[in-house]
Amino acid sequence: MTTQLSILGSTGSIGVSTLDVVQRHPQRYAVVALAAGRNIAKLAEQVRTFKPKLVSVLNQADIEKLQQLIPECHCTIVSGEAGAIQVATHPDADKVVSAMVGAAGLKPTYAAICTGKPVLLANKETLVMAGECMMAAAKEHHCTLLPIDSEHSAILQSMQGQPRDRITRIILTASGGPFRTRPQETFSKITREEALAHPNWNMGAKITIDSASMMNKGLEFIEAMWLFDLKPAQIDIVVHPQSIIHSMVEYCDGSVMAQLGMPDMRGPISYALAYPDRMASGITPMDFTKTSQLTFEAPDTKRFPCLRLARQAAEAGGTLPAVMNAANEIAVAAFLDNKIHFTKIADIVEETMKRHTTQRCGSIEDAVAADTWARETAKGLVA
Ligand SMILES: NC(=O)c1ccc[n+]([C@@H]2O[C@H](COP(=O)([O-])OP(=O)(O)OC[C@H]3O[C@@H](n4cnc5c(N)ncnc54)[C@H](OP(=O)(O)O)[C@@H]3O)[C@@H](O)[C@H]2O)c1
User: Fold this and answer.
1) Would you state the CATH architecture of domain 317-383?
2) Measured in angstroms, how far is the CA atom of residue 250 from the centroid of ligand 1?
3) CATH code for 3-147?
4) pTM of the predicted structure, to 2 decimals
5) Distance (Å, whole) CA 265 – CA 268
6) 1 — pLDDT class (breaks 50, 70, 90)
7) Which regions of the chain carry the CATH code 3.40.50.720?
8) Which residue among 106, 127, 203 is best mutated to probe the pocket of ligand 1, counting the most ligand atoms within 8 A of its Cβ?
C-alpha cells in the first residue's frame, strides 16, 4: 500500500532531500500535501512532479503567482499558518514530515501530533520551545515522533533491541563546525560567507549558522532530552570533526552502540520514513579504506558559549528554552543580514535569557508568549 505524505517545509534542504528519497520509492510513497514559504518557483516544480491535492504558501499574494506557474494542476492552494496547519492535518495523509525552520513550525507540528499520525520531526526548534506540551500531546494522541536529525536518528538506531533502562549515557557527536580550530580572537571578524561554509553538511542557512556557533548542538541537546526522556546529566557532547559517527548510546556494561554513515540527511530521512524497516536512501556507501581517521575532542564552551547557554536553558526548563530559541532566531537573522558580528549571536541570546523570568511552559500559548517576548527583547538588543 502506498503511504501518503504531508510535508511541511518542502522547498527547504530537508524537504528537497525527503522528496528525493520519495522519488526513489514510487510504489511505496506519494505526496498528498506540501507546505512551503516563499520559494514559489521550487514549489511549482514540486507540484508538477508530485501532484499533491493541497499546497500551502506563506503569503496570500503568492497563491495567484503559483496558480499561474502551474495552470495544468488542479490542487487547492491555501496560505499562512492556517494553510500550513491544513497541510499538517490533511485527512488523507498517513505520515507528516515536519521540516519548516524555526518557531514558524510550532503550531503546524503540534496540530500534526494531535492527529495521532506518525510525525517525522526535523524542525527541532519546536521541541526546544514546547517539549513538554509536544511530548504530552504525542502521548495523549498515540503519535509516534521519529527524528529526522542525524544524531537523534543515530541514537534511536543504537537503542533498537536494547533495554532502555540499561542506558547510562547518550553521546551526541558534533562536527565542531567551520570555526573549530579558528583562533578565538578573530571570531568577531567572521563573515556571513565563512559561517555559511559548513565543512561536512549541506543545509539551510539558519541551521548552518547554528552549526557554526554550535547552538545547533545545544538545540539538539534539548531535543534529545525530550525525545528520549533523559536528564541533562545523561547527555554528553563530543566533537567528532569527520561526522561519520552520528551519535552513540552507552549501556551499563560499558558497551557503546554507535551508528555510522556518510553525512547525508537522506539516511535519517529514509530511516524515519521506513521505520522500523529500512530502504535505499541514495547515500554513497562508506569506504572505510578512505576514512583514515575518526577523531574526538571535548567541546570548548569558552569559544562556543551557545553550548553553555543551551545547557543552562535545559536545566532551568520552563519558558527559558523557548526564550533562548527565539533570541537565537533573531540574532542569526541579524547576522545573516550583516547587522551584527558573529560573536553578538551568543551575547544577544545570553542577555535575553538574563532578562527573562522563567515560568512554567504548560501550553503552546505559554511557549508562544515566551517566544514573542524574547523576539522583541532580542530585536531591541540588535538595534
Ligand atoms: N538541513 C539539514 O541537514 C537539517 C538536519 C537536521 C535538522 N534540520 C532541521 O530541519 C529544519 C529545516 O531545516 P532546513 O535546513 O531544511 O531549512 P531550510 O532549507 O531553510 O528550509 C526551511 C523550509 O521552511 C519553509 N519556511 C520557512 N519559514 C516558513 C514559514 N513562516 N511558513 C511556511 N514555511 C516556511 C521554507 O520555505 P521557502 O524556502 O519556500 O521560503 C523551507 O521550505 C530546521 O528546523 C533544521 O534545524 C535540518
Assistant:
1) Orthogonal Bundle (1.10)
2) 31
3) 3.40.50.720
4) 0.98
5) 6
6) confident
7) 3-147
8) 203
